[in-house]
Design goal:
By secondary structure, this protein is an all-alpha fold. The chain is about 75% helix and about 0% strand. It has a single domain, classed as Growth Hormone, Chain: A. It contains 20 helices and no strands. The longest helix is centred in the middle third of the chain and has 32 residues, at about 215-245.
């Protein structure tokens, strides 16, 4: 019988799998300026195509993630990795405008629902089997950060491949990532998944035990505000940088997709550091400080489009730190607060409600761009970007409010 792999090996392998599986995750927002011109999209149209990805996620996540309390998360993970490849390759070969893109964005969103949180549940089950009830927050921090690293690489490679070839190739090559992810899990993880220690006593979609858990729901609502901001910027960040580069100082030779990649790479150290600070000073306190700081930075970044470009880039990099500084702390908090036997169901609620923010953020950002423009064509003035970012900042402040209102009396 092969030796049980160490917790470190499990964490490293699953994080690597998450990174390569995300190679197509940011291809659409990275190349959005191209699609705006080629398909003659309005900013609201683009907001829908960015946001509908997360509607697909929302439709599937309650069932797929809840099932991980009842069957092996690996089965769901592998099935949806295959679907990820289908969605990405289908976009490359069969997309020619708004509606075909709409369909494949939904497919890719459904696939994400069966890989992201089920992957975390797979890791959590194996870590509990090998390391007992030790604090898993560091593992959660690295896993959630790998989402950002994969997104960063996706931004960068999408720009490079689309420039050298075209956008079809950018999507096509990204479809190889899910196959690599499945190979990593198959080769490195034990063939047999551990038995579920606690099983839910209610039916599959009965989330009442989760909704009754105040501590968990505080983190869920904070995650919703976090996702609104994070995915709004991931959807529109490249387009904003392209707009700012047309200002009086120019772009100084920096590719907007490369800058976006660096911003997303900052997610690893900022998320891990945020979690370490939370372990030392308390999750609620650190999450609140990070989210309020991010809200302020959003407002400043929005009005800086005509400032010197190096200032815009510097603010964007700083914003990238606050965007993800609360990510691991929020997810680790909800995992720790989950009612016994309902960790998968809690992750499902966390993802389902939380990704309403991921859908609404890109869409509402595009709507605000159009509404705040004097011509109705959004993103043509600094003021329209300022209002869109300010609205995003306002939504972020609701996260700390939810944590404060739903905080339990005991130490978090």
């Amino acid at each position: 019988m092969p030796p049980t792999p160490s917790p470190l090996r499990l964490i490293v392998v699953l994080c690597a799998a998450e990174i390569v599986s995300m190679l197509g995750a940011a291809t659409f927002p990275a190349l959005l300026p191209t699609f705006l011109v080629e398909w003659e999209l309005s900013k609201t149209d683009a907001g829908w195509l960015n946001g509908i990805y997360y509607v697909g996620y929302l439709m599937a996540v309650p069932v797929l993630v809840s099932l991980t309390d009842r069957i092996s998360p690996r089965k769901i993970y592998f099935l949806c990795m295959g679907l990820t490849a289908v969605g990405t390759l289908g976009f490359a070969l069969m997309t020619s405008g708004f509606w075909s893109a709409f369909v494949f964005r939904v497919i890719s969103g459904i696939a994400l629902a069966g890989t992201y949180m089920p992957g975390l549940k797979l890791l959590s089950n194996h870590l509990r089997h090998t390391a007992g009830d030790k604090d898993q927050s560091r593992a959660v921090a690295f896993y959630t950060s790998s989402f950002g690293i994969g997104t960063a690489i996706s931004f960068y490679l999408s720009g490079v491949v689309a420039t050298a070839l075209d956008w079809h190739w950018a999507f096509g090559l990204a479809s190889l990532g899910p196959a690599a992810a499945m190979a990593l899990i198959f080769l490195a993880f034990p063939r047999q998944d551990p038995e579920q220690a606690d099983r839910p006593s209610t039916h599959l979609l009965d989330f009442r035990p989760v909704f009754k858990c105040r501590a968990a729901m505080g983190y869920v609502l904070a995650y919703t505000a976090h996702n609104f901001e994070l995915f709004a910027f991931r959807a529109w960040g490249v387009t904003y940088l392209v707009f700012a580069a047309t200002g009086p100082t120019g772009n100084m030779g920096w590719s907007a997709t490369a800058i976006a990649a660096v911003i997303n790479l900052l997610g690893l150290p900022s998320s891990v550091l945020g979690n370490e600070l939370s372990r030392r000073f308390g999750r609620h306190r650190i999450i609140t400080m990070v989210m309020l700081s991010s809200a302020v930075l959003a407002c400043v970044l929005g009005i800086s489009a005509d400032w010197p470009y190096w200032v815009v880039v510097g603010l964007s990099l700083l914003y990238g730190i606050t965007l993800t500084g609360d990510s691991a702390s929020i997810t680790a908090g909800v995992v720790a607060a989950a009612p016994k036997g309902y960790q998968g169901a809690t992750m499902a609620v966390h993802s389902c409600i939380g990704f309403i923010g991921a859908f609404a953020g890109p869409l509402m950002f595009g709507v605000m761009l159009d509404l705040a423009s004097p011509t109705g064509i959004g993103g043509e003035t600094v003021a329209s970007w300022g209002w869109a970012f300010a609205f995003t900042g306002l939504i972020v402040t609701l996260g700390p409010l939810a944590l404060a209102l739903l905080r339990e009396k005991k130490k978090d």
